[in-house]
Design brief:
Order of helices and strands: EEHEEEHEHEHEHEH
Largest sheet: 7 strands, mixed
CATH superfamily: Alpha/Beta hydrolase fold, catalytic domain
Strand order of the largest sheet: 1-3-2-6-7-8-9
Strand content: 15-25%
Distance between the termini: 26 Å
CATH topology: Rossmann fold
Number of helices: 6
Radius of gyration: 16 Å
Shape: globular
Number of domains: 1
């Protein structure tokens, strides 16, 4: 697990990478785009690495992915069992922070691409009362258990984290229409937040969106 420098902190950010990558790759990407790490004196930033598992879109080859799926397609009938390993990592990470004195309402989860999908599952299915969720170039499958949890009112309106979604308008791997559909579906089920399209952007992180995310995180998790 990669993390920012260890220091006394009063809040935590867990940032999940995209499929086939690692936490260190995500750290390096943030540093390249910003010219520095995230500027949080009081927030510990954790960049976990996904477990190595068979990945069907790569014909069963082993890859560092948060979950398996049949295809990158919003209509893919992904099952709950596909999420088991990713869920285990997310729950362990949050439990570690709570055990070390960080309350749930001082934790934000986010992610890029597949990592963003795991962040949505974490904030709206697995864990009640987080401070916020953000995604970049991500979507939920139409039959996602996340929608089921929200329809069944597993969370109260007061414990639903605020959401920030960003998506490249020229993304050909995950079409922006999928991200917008996910955003609108979550909004209908009580999730408040924003969906921000990024001009001239493919399936990549951008400096502008990272700066926006950084500013938003500081409003959600101010110093104590």
């Amino acid at each position: 697990m990669a993390s920012s420098a260890i220091r006394k902190h009063s809040a935590s950010l867990i940032f999940f990478h995209g499929s086939g990558e690692t936490g260190q790759i995500l750290i390096d990407r943030v540093r390249y785009l910003l010219g520095r790490d995230f500027n949080f004196a009081h927030i510990n930033v954790v960049y976990p690495t996904a477990p190595l598992q068979e990945y069907t879109p790569l014909k069963g080859q082993l890859s560092k992915v948060w979950f398996d799926r049949n295809a990158v397609d919003i209509a893919d009938p992904i099952g709950k069992q596909n999420m088991t390993k990713g869920y285990a990592v997310a729950q362990q990470l949050i439990q570690y922070e709570v055990t070390h004195g960080i309350p749930l309402n001082r934790i934000i989860v986010g992610g890029f691409s597949m990592g963003g999908a795991l962040a949505l599952h974490t904030g709206y299915h697995l864990t009640e009362g987080l401070a916020g969720v953000f995604t970049h170039s991500s979507f939920l499958y139409r039959n996602s258990v996340v929608f089921e949890s929200l329809r069944n009112r597993k969370f109260t309106k007061e414990t639903l984290p605020e959401l920030r979604m960003f998506h490249g308008q020229n993304d050909t791997l995950v079409p922006p229409e999928w991200g917008r559909e996910t955003s609108e579906s979550l909004a209908k089920l009580g999730v408040s937040g924003t969906f921000t399209p990024l001009e001239d952007t493919l399936h990549v992180l951008r400096r502008k969106s990272l700066l926006d995310i950084e500013k938003w995180i500081l409003t959600k998790l101010p110093p104590l």
